[in-house]
Amino acid sequence: MTDNSMANNMNTTAISEKKARKWFFFLLAVSFVTVFIFNYLTPFFNDDYCFMTKLKTAENFGDLFSQQYEEYMEMNGRAILLFFVRLSLYFPTIIFKVANSLIFVIMTLLMYANISNKKKYDIRLMILITLSVWFGSVVPEETIFWQTGACNYLWGAVIILGFITLYRYFIKREKSSVMTAIGMFIFGIFAGWCNENTSGGGIIATLALLVNYRYLEPKVLTNDNTNVSPESGDSGNDKNISLSERKVKPWMISGIAGQLCGFLIMVFAPGYQSRIVTMTENHDGLLGLMARFQKITLVMKNEFFILIAIFIALFIVCLFQGRKLFELRNAILFFVLFVLTSYALILIPEPQVRAYFGAGIYLLIAIAQLFVQIVDNEKYPWCEMVKTIAVTLMSLYFVLLYFDAGASLDRIRRQSNEQVEAINEAISNGNTDVIYVKEIDPSFENPYTYVYTGGLKENPEYWVNIAYCEYFEVGSIVVLPRNAEETEQSE
Fold it and tell me: Closest Cα partner for 128 from 368, 328, 358, 398?
């Protein structure tokens, strides 16, 4: 090849990469806008009002810390994420909606960063990851768009994935300094202090990365007889470092130590321990554990069967294409994290389905990894075409679903605002004993609203109704059917 042709190829590659980069960031902008619109259309729900009632007693910003300490001692060990809840409700709502949309985009980027053997700007992969979160995440109405739920699950997943990603990045760059060790310890505390099961999965992930770095990562012999890692990318720092010479750096230990510290601070919180003691079940001992195992397995079937089937199908395709298990270890790692993170909930009586959110994210990463590792060659020339068709059809379905669900969310927002206006109008008229509001139209139900579970109910003694009453300082709130005749407010 002549120098001119080589130069032309390099220029073409540079232009192609520059174009891909522009489309990649355009895709991120579109992702932010789509999530922001749904965030904007989502009103407050149950626990939001509980926190806002408590925040009304805060005289200054410092009181948020004292309230969080009180909850840590009496109710819940997730001090960091619950403080985010207080912080998001303390400031104007629009700040949370912008921040939550950014957090969503950051999470998809972190998922993307944990996929190995990908192109630098793989637009198709990024679309797949983004849509997989929309379609495949656990109860997105509770974990992504509901304000209290998003701070607990979406934000927690980002902190944990962020730590795992940074740990992986530093391993490739052979980082080693006192400040790195201190920083990773502090970051590790945050990552370990998020969710009981997802943080536990994060600890296992970093341990696996450490073992892979020290003992498993394959080496290839270069022309100058230098051992380099094929997974380290264009990292000259790995050169001249044989597998036997790879030493465990202080930051690798301090990061995991930080995770363990944060995790222990969370699970041994006085409030968390007292809450666990008060939870009752029909069975205890070994029979109780077996009952919990069965319930978790049922959730796995109901929430993850399709995703597990997709993972297995892609895994089999990779094996038929000649991929070795060792080559698929990143996908296997995240699938194992999914299983362990899910069944770790056996330690908790009656966990909510939303507690599986982090586990689901691990599974989605595993699927995306296998998607990348299915190769297009002379024997299987159809693979790239099938992958592109699959992502295209997913995109089309998303557009249709998005506009339908978005229209319903807007109607729900308006009717939810009508409920609040009716309450405020009754209060202004002095009618605070019994307040009547209209129900949210059931025909607007869709996968991205929590209103039908976390909103007001017909029973005025329902705990959500009571939470509304405490916030608005009224006696009781009764929900009437949409087609009911206007009812006079009580005197």
Answer: 368
Residue 27 CB-density burial (10 A; 0-12 exposed, 13-18 middle, 19+ buried)? middle
Q: CA 159, CA 157: separation in Å to the nearest integer?
A: 6
Give per-residue pLDDT as tens, 65-96: 999 999 898 888 889 999 999 999 999 999 99
Q: Which of 54, 25, 2, 24 is nearest to 470 (CA)?
A: 54
> Token pair for residue 132?
């997989």
Q: How many CB atoms lie within 10 A of CB 60?
A: 6
Q: How far is CA 97 from CA 20, 54, 133, 151, in A?
A: 29, 21, 18, 11
Torsion of CA 138, 141, 143, 148, to 10 degrees: -160
- Burial tier of 157 (Cβ tally within 10 Å: 0-12, 13-18, 19+): buried
Cβ pair 152, 195 in contact under 8 A: yes
The pTM of the full predicted model, rounded to 2 decimals, is 0.89
- pLDDT tens for 316-351 read 999 988 888 888 999 999 999 999 998 888 877 777
Residue 114, CA distances (Å) to 30, 122, 179, 334, 408 in order: 22, 13, 24, 10, 35
For 409, residues 6+ apart whose C-beta sits below 8 A from its C-beta are: 38, 41, 42, 444, 446, 448, 449
Helix (H, G, I), strand (E, B) or coil at 239: coil
